[in-house]
Amino acid sequence: MTSATTNTTTSTPALLSVADLRIAFPGRNGAPPARAVDGVDLDIRPGEIVALVGESGCGKTTLARSLLGLVPPTSGRILFDGAPLASSARALKAYRKRAQLVLQDPNGSLNPRHTVYDAVAEGLRIHGYGGDERAAVAGALARAGLRPPERFFLRYPHELSGGQRQRVVIAGALVLEPELLVADEPVASLDASVRGEILALLLRLRAELGLSALVVTHDLGLAWNIADRVAVMYLGRIVETGEVEQVLTAPRHPYTQALLSVLPEAPGAPVVLTGEPPDPSRVPGGCRFHARCQILAGGEAERAGVADACRSQDPGILTGGGTAQVACHWAHARAGAETGAGTGAERATPAQ
């Protein structure tokens, strides 16, 4: 198995750029606000597929939805093609021709009373498409792998397989010829035999159309097969990022190591993390992972001289670029011991 290969470089200007994004939801019964996204920098370049991975509840879906204007940020900045993402209804409508969302459950995305044709044509009608609607729908279905497309026009969602329904959802996104797809667990509800087909489709669309994509997933195997770059998220913040092969073959953050250890092909025993992820309304001080960290619990952080820093000092926010980075005091200390000094590219910026 080989990982996806990027066709972009770190010098290519970002299509989508996020800087210090924060999203907080009001707490219940006087509780502090829940910091669902708590300082995220993230860039996605033209033609690049970035996988955003992490446990359920870490803020992945909230971040993804905010990138499409569906969840307003509390603070921070989102730029698309160099321009700030505006919040007016007209500006968001124009933006959503260029950036489309593909959800996990095609059953929830498709109206059971609408034919496939109407489901795919809906976006064209919302945006006042002035061309040949039938040709546009047929082209989108064909690109999504439903051929001959006319055979599917009058079919309803219940008449399709799960993989076919997901292809209809993808066709509905493609019909507007977007530049960016945000796919939230796009194959999680599909049988294993169909998952590979949908992933191959996304890679083919990138190759043929130059699409960029953010793929939200808890599945590191999926990230390996489809992504150019991976960003690992924990408790509202990205804690490790870099090219997918680099991160997934030589993970530096203890959380990334734990996620990878449970894969069937992983060497050694799985790492069992203690406890549950903390409440996002009560993010612990110091490294937000320290209460569950197997490196701290096993004494390795103490031997590296960073145990106190793990408990008291925030490792900071990783920058959004394509360089390999990790927000971990122990990883920095280990890198410094191996090279004589930690490199600047490894370090996070201080949290505000």
Automatic annotation (TrEMBL):
Pfam families: ABC_tran, oligo_HPY. Keywords: ATP-binding, Nucleotide-binding, Transport. CDD domains: ABC_NikE_OppD_transporters (cd03257). GO terms for molecular function: ATP binding. It comes from the Bacteria. Residues 16-260 form the ABC transporter domain. PROSITE patterns: ABC_TRANSPORTER_1 (PS00211), ABC_TRANSPORTER_2 (PS50893). InterPro entries: AAA+_ATPase, ABC_transp_ATP-bind, ABC_transporter-like_ATP-bd, ABC_transporter-like_CS, Oligopep_ABC_C, P-loop_NTPase. Belongs to the ABC transporter superfamily. This is ABC transporter ATP-binding protein. It comes from Streptomyces similanensis.
